[in-house]
Amino acid sequence: MPLSRGGGWSPQLTDKSPWFQLDLRVRMEVTAVATQGRYGSHDWVSAYMLLYSDTGRVWKQYRHEDSVGRLVGNSNSDTVVHHKLSQSIRTRFLRFVPVEWNSSGRVGLRVEAYGCAYKSYVADFDGRSSLLYRFNQKSMSTVKDVISLRFKSRQAEGVLLHGEGQRGDYITLELHRGRLALHLNLDDTRVRASSGRMVVTLGSLLDDQHWHSVLIERFNKQVNFTLDRHTQHFRAKGDGDSLDVDYELSFGGIPLPGKPGTFLRRNFHGCVENLYYNGVNIIDLAKRRKPQIYSGNVTFSCSEPQLVAATFLSSSSSFLSLPAPAPTLEGLSVRLQFRTWNPDGLLLSTRMVSEEEPCYLLLQISSGRLRLTHHTSDLKTSEVSTGKSVIVNDGLWHLVSVSTRGLQVTMTLDNEPASSIQLEDYLEPRDNYYFGGCPVAQNGSSCINPTMAFQGCMRLILINNQPTDFMLVQQGVMGSWNQLQFDICGIQDRCLPSFCENGGRCTQTWSSFHCDCAGTGYSGATCHNSVYESSCEAYRLAGSSSGDFSIDPDGSGPLGPIQVYCNMTESKVWTVVHHNSTSQARVRGSTLEKPYNMHFDYGASPEQLRMLVAQSEYCQQKITYQCRKSRLFNTWDGAPLSWWLDRSGERRTYWGGVLPGVQQCACSLEENCIDLNYFCNCDADRDSWENDTGFLSYKEDLPVSGIAIGDTSRLNSEAVYSVGPLECSGDKSLWNAASFYEEASYLHFPAFQIEFSFDISFYFKTGSPSGVFLENLGLQDFIIVELSSPSSVTFSFNAGDGPVVLAVKSPVPLNDRQWHWVRAERNVKEASLQVDQLPLRYLDAPADGHLRLQLNSQLFVGGTATRQRGFLGCIRALDVNGVSFDLDERAKMTPGVSSGCPGHCSSSAGFCHNRGKCIEKSSGYVCDCTHSAYGGPSCKEEVSVSFEKGSSVTYTFQEPFSVMQNRTAQVSSASSVYSKSRDNMALSFLTTQSPAMLLTINTFSQQYVAIILARNGSLQIWYRLHKERRPSVFSPVLTNLADGELHRLRLHREGKDVYVARVLSGNDALDEEVAQAGSKGFVGCFSSVQYNHIAPLKAALLNRGSSLVSIRGHLLESNCGALADLSTSKSRLDDTQRDSAVIGGVVTAVIFITLCVVAVMAHFLYQHRQVRRTASIQEKDHRHSLEAAYRAELHLNNSMRDSMKEYYI
């Protein structure tokens, strides 16, 4: 209907699902559409869906690049709104489906479509046909190939293209389980004969009877494989660069040699158009009957099957009711095809009569399996299910049939063996057949549904072999329905492309997806956030002491974590990365022509090591070369006889203690070489053992990746070398700061690519009441983080669905000239904002909303592009997606901004330890140890208590720690919402008693976590998240810990939490073995007990009489933690490489500490839980066993130092 003319379309008010359809007469390439309201009225459509089809049946919804299916319409009846399609669509029919319209009027619409003519060469394959393209010569050898085609398929399996050669070359393009797979090998019979064939897969749900475009481009081994808008780049396997194919290429199937019409795999069933092989139009040659083409049962027009599907949209209210046909002698039979992602849903419910007693037949999906139930009136049930290996919520079409014959009900799924229920009496249908769900008025009477309503697609419903016409149902001629879409299957693959990062595994339901981050080292809704600190310096600031750690230098960036040793001395924190050969090695018999070579493996990629070195302030690596008649340089011409390799594999000929470009050793700079005629001791070429030792410290070359020694072949010539671990100190990003002292000033950085997920974190301190921390703008989208008031930080953004504001309000002012931490995150699932240790505020992304955040301007830090509302104060450690911004360097060239930040607490000097907070004072600083388990001026003094039998400490949280949300959701359920905060627990203990209770965390809903010593002294962690389930037990340490030695225990949790609303008094919820350990009490010593920012043991000593702390029995302040440190100080001083000083975190003695949480008990069990979302609230529940998932995050410190053992969990 042309625009700018009178009239317009408006449906009848009684039309339940109105739509306007446009027939273009022939297939056209549509590039844009435009809409307008009905002329001279208050009728217009403000939002609509655009569907398209070749035949007027089997429709598909047009979606933007970020999968948004809703198009914005009009806001009045006169204005024309154009939409240029991001991808043109080739179709004959367009259907406009109104979603929203003027509330003061009716649906009114005028439309126009823009595009051009589209010509295509089409071939139809019926599942038994093929095209063979025969070469003029025996074999075709190519180094470059370009293959393009478009297809639409009626089946999930089928070969589109195949060619092979006698030398092992092959290429195969096929559909497998609805995905497109490309098999390619170049000249390698070994690969072809083995199981290591290379397969690259794209797409899913490709059996949707709609056109899909394919392009394969190959040059030598480099291949670009494109399906629709998604391209995969890969390198082909094989020894050669050319693809050698013998005799022919086949399209539509793989024929057996000498047996025409017989195929190795299932043939393609569907249509192909515009098939080109290296510029040759294959279908055109076939149509013109050219001799090089053999055409077997191929026709040249696309036949269109009438497979009309219906989409069940709602998991709570969708249903289709069909009348029961008259009984037949053969009995009842129902047959249908369905596809879904949901693990639960009702397929069929019907009331039957058996000897005049009502009963029900139920067909449902339960936990991904198909189940048939015969439900009698006295609640007796009989049921059969498919096997555990047969999963039906995989998005594929499945065929199921249910039939009765005699005293037997039989269920058949696909090609699986039939399952039967034996009946006592004959069944007769009484009421309607209900598919997908039950009407609200009928539920419990003529229809029962013990599970959710079905969300998915159904087609080809046959009742007693009579097909159901969905068009008659839609028109109201037969049956009834609710929340259905006809003639379309609206299934989407929300895991393609996958938004789960860092190796997270994507699973999905009909309306959402979930990322399983177990074992990845990352957490969050999309596995974006590293669970590890970025440096050893960050671990020290968090209160950790020396030990083995995983660090993630680029945080949420693409690089994974590195295993390192953190050596935390009084003056510095050293990051130590060991390699595979740190011990001394002896070399004999090597020459310059055949040198001795050794490669060093650090257990990390070069990119990870480069990032670690770049973020460190200083790095060094000790290299020792002991020699006897083994020179480093030729004494005649100075040519190197030995060398080492830098991190890029380049030769380096300078040795420890000197700078690059100088072929010397440390003794030459110190002027103490044994022979002053040479620059290295070993170049004196003496028969005695000499030594050239020093530290390499040029960061751009570190770490050493290898060493080559070439002068040990002469008589009595030998060398002994060692290359120490990489050692780095300092974290450049933590204290990289800028000071803003003019409101109009700012720092600007290039635009950042943060389309689908980003996190921004930084520290600030200010005395101003407000100011913008950072701003980044697009044409419509934006992000802004600002101090909006003296006690409030806001995170604002627009990703295409309208502005969103998240705010965290602090109970104390934030403009107190002290450091505060801010972290904002946005991904396709949610957005969140956290300030210091205040509760996290987060907001779920809108369902089917825009995914892509499009920003095209520079990133402004400390101000805005308009130079208004600028920030006055200091910002440091600015990090975006793991990339640290060099504020210090940029500030040096920016007016109104200075590098660094004044004050004692603005450097890495580390005045305050173990979570102590540095507080600026006019004449210096003080350490606030309130949230530290330690005391003293620098928060380094152990707080230890000895417990006698019958003693205990109970700490009750005063404030509610529930997570704030930007949504209305009830929190009465203990698991209705979840937190994204981080939990850390630490305690040290010394005892000889077992069993013994160390620590428990209880909730009023009989959930608990308990840490105990079992009868044999082994450490056990008990947890029960649901009172109706048995507790789970995890034993990370099996050795006897009740040995009178000091043991340190740390637990780290990042992820989902359990919420409660009241306090549980006593331990009635504890299981027998845990309660027994508690009844035995604890006799021994605890030290420096920490739970997040709470130090309950310290509170018990310093705040006796407080309502937060209740003490039973006699407690005696002790120094067992400090004594344990003293007893091991000598061994630590002797071992400077790993334990030069262990500070913080030594925790010793408690009998029984119960942290009774008022509003939330944050547990540490995260990555063994799956997500289950209901229609009203979101519930995230553990389903995996603890041991399987939690061992991925288990870090055991195996080092033993005399009397102290340390465990990281």
Automatic annotation (TrEMBL):
Q: Which cysteine pairs make disulfide bonds?
A: C874-C901
Show where the F5/8 type C domain sits.
1-116
Per the database record, which ranges form the EGF-like domain?
A: 491-528, 902-940
Q: What does UniProt give as GO cellular component?
A: membrane
Q: What is the membrane topology listed in the Swiss-Prot or TrEMBL record? A: Single-pass type I membrane protein
Per UniProt, which keywords does this protein have? Disulfide bond, EGF-like domain, Membrane, Repeat, Signal, Transmembrane, Transmembrane helix
Keyword Zinc-finger annotated: no
Q: Which PANTHER family match?
A: CONTACTIN-ASSOCIATED PROTEIN-LIKE 5 ISOFORM X1, PIKACHURIN-LIKE PROTEIN
Q: What is this protein called?
A: Contactin associated protein-like 5a
State the species of origin: Pygocentrus nattereri (Red-bellied piranha)
